[in-house]
Amino acid sequence: MKATNIYDPNYFHKVVDCQWACPAHTPVPEYIRLIAQERYTEAYMVNWESNVFPGILGRTCDRPCEPACRRVRTEEKPVAICRLKRVAADFKGDISSYLPNVPKQKNGKRIALLGAGPASLAVARDLLPLGYEIDMFDRDPGGGGMMRSQIPAFRLPADVLEEEVDLIVNMGINAQYDYEITSMKAMLDMDYDAYFVGTGAPRGRDLDLPGRKEVSDHISIGIDWLSSVAFGHTTEISGNVIVMGGGNTAMDCCRTSKRLGAETVTVVVRSGFHVMKASEWEKEDAQAEGIPILNNRPPKEFVHDNGKLKGVVFERVKPVEENGRLKYIPTGEDDVFMEADHILMAIGQENHCPWIERDIGIEFDKWDCPILDENTLQSTHPKIFFGGDSAFGPENIIWASAHAHKAAISIHLLCQGKDPSKDRPPEGVNLISQKMGIHEWSYDAEHDPSKRYIVPHANLRRSLDNIKVEVELGFDEDLGYQEAQRCLNCDVQTVFTEKLCIECDACVDICPMDCITFTENQDEPDLRSSLMVPAENPEQDLYVSEDLPTGRVMVKDEDLCLHCGLCAERCPTNAWDMQKSIVHNPQIGSYSE
Amino acid sequence: MTFVKKPEIHHPLLTVNELGLKRRDYEGLVSTLCAGCGHDSVSAAIIQACSELSLPPHRFAKLSGIGCSSKTPSYFLSNSHGFNSVHGRMPSVATGANIANRDLIYIGVSGDGDSASIGLGQFAHAVRRKINMLYIVDNNGTYGLTKGQFSATNDYGSTSKRGVPNLYSPIDLVCMALQIGASFVARSFSGDKKQLVPLIKAALLHNGFSFIDIISPCVMFNNHDGSTKSYGHVRDHSAPIVDADFVAPHEEIEVDYAPGSTETIDMPDGSRLRLRKLEDSYNPKNRVDALAYVQRALDEGDVVTGLLYVEEDPADLHEVLETPEVPLSALTESDLCPGSETLDSINASFR
Fold first, then answer.
1. What is the pTM of this model?
2. Contact status of A534 with chain B (Cβ, < 8 Å)
3. CATH code given to domain A101-201+351-415
């Protein structure tokens, strides 16, 4: 294998599994260390810079970082990254002195943001400090988009939402609420320098089954229903409620129904339990509230009596694996009839932009998604950019932040007359030694074998009585500290300097995870199988050195390294050093610039 | 010295041996020797060898004297017996322990100071008495604990860290062991576990006195350009002559080498020792030839490594003394004082 180029910004970035998995590349270990030092405000700002909504995401994020966490591989459960983000938000102090200055003197460029959801807000956050004049349009009476309309208050309290939304709006956005956008052409006529479309995926899918039309009074589309609950139009639901669908919207629907007075609530899902789209913890929380989830039951027919809904007939299926894909075949058992007075349909959503005329230069693909450059988020109309759910279909808030950073760079380049694709700022990496003296490191290197800490919940009866009572209470400072100590500090890298190595084997002998091997160089598959312990995880790189004096190379399997620093501790010549990798993802208008 | 504790978790793919133990179960405390000390690699090699042989840690007795090397028994096989004795007196303690309980596996770890200076007489007599043990000398040619004076194994002309040459000729413990009658003699290098681990395995199963002289560089005081016991010098001048492959009882010998270049020796537990001669003319079963070869190489400045001599049918002290199979420590009072009737019958046999 060729020697590893550790100065490639991606190499060490990939070792920080959580940061690599985060769409917005939040420097997770960095803010977790700050939490452990009780520097909550700084921890919050590290988050705010990259993901824009730490308090909101600390409660609602889909957490792509957690399954990626190295601790899943070395032990069992990941560090509770998302809950630690909330700790930073809950205990932060005054952040005003950390915020970027927004110049009074504008730069003369005007930007229109369509939709006031997380993507638009994050674009505004990035562009305002550069002097852009920003107009934001939304049909709802307030900012926040789906964060306000779709996420129930028992998961995301209104004050948390408003604090982070208002922070950005008050940076100087000219917000126009209750503004129904009906024509993109009309928007273009307003002659902005650039447009950002962040209108989400506002259309909930429907099912055309026998009886659907007749019972339409008793069926609500999940996201529309949640939104009407959020804005106070719907305050109750009664009788037997069936929620159809297995995603997070379904979980929010069933838990909301339970709080609004439904006699029984049942979730019925077409697929199996483990392949449901809902996050693990959302399923657990719904079940903990006594809501049954019935799997492998596709709906067949709505049964009614002259338009009065009686119930739903479900088929029974079982999953069979065929060519590596799951297929559902009938079990042959009788169909099931389930009584229902109301049905909430939460089987997915799509982007839907009927207000964009198809003859103004924005091309759409066969799924009705705009054709975009993935890197710049520019549509086929050079002035129009997309982000969030309206770009590539429904995703999570964290994706909206990630898209927004990219789009903001593109808009900035466009407005400067530069090429949004070719003139983008490069990625970079800095490596800084963490050695402070003999046996002294500037990070807590010791491995903490503790299991993942459990987050306290509000009293079940109390929270079911009131939709505004937040269910998850979050870690207190003590639990937050203890959970923070579980982080392996994967951003403190093991950096190897060939010319200093005397091949004494001290690092090989001390490494608790048998990561390091000195051996003859070979092709990657052979090398992987000939290490101290074979490197069987192809997703994780091998760190290969240049040739050493004996003709061998140092090979380190990054997969299970605990970043405990023992190799560097035992190295007599400092050939190993623990160096913090700081990944620079290009972003504009951030407070550190 | 290391202050960060070695985490207890291990690689999930770490295999277990026949006793259900992992390699990590054979470890000891975290070493307090200097970072990069060759002795730590020797400890790691012992750990690897013992776990791969599936030997029960609680059946080991670790013995040592004084010195950096003699600290190392703390750093392997935590769950075994140990005795850290007086400077140079490890062989006496080993002899006594071995006489009392022949059932334990004895590993003595000593250094060039402990064995070639203060304990030279002790060493010689342990060899002579054929104590069934593995005697390891961590040989770095220097007194590391007292900050780097030349030891008795330091080569003539080899310099100190400050460039002062050594004025005396060295004692070569391998030659001594060969000359006095050790039945298993090897030399290796702490930086070459591929060679060292099979040697330790073979030595542990050898039924007699096994001696391994391991050149184990002192990174603090004897790893500079003028030293002949540095990592660099040993790598440049090491001349492996016989590689020992340890073959477990049910394992097939797969690789074919040129005829005449390999020899197989059966071990007491049914395993085999496969000797690969890297030079055809060398005969590892001939003590006189081995001694001559090693001596000649020493004069030329080469460090001959590998299994230098092995006796196919060795004997140990218990065979010489015809002691009972049951360890003396396990004999009961009725075994030792069988009563007046037995005494009478013995007396009668002399009438």
1. 0.89
2. yes
3. 3.50.50.60
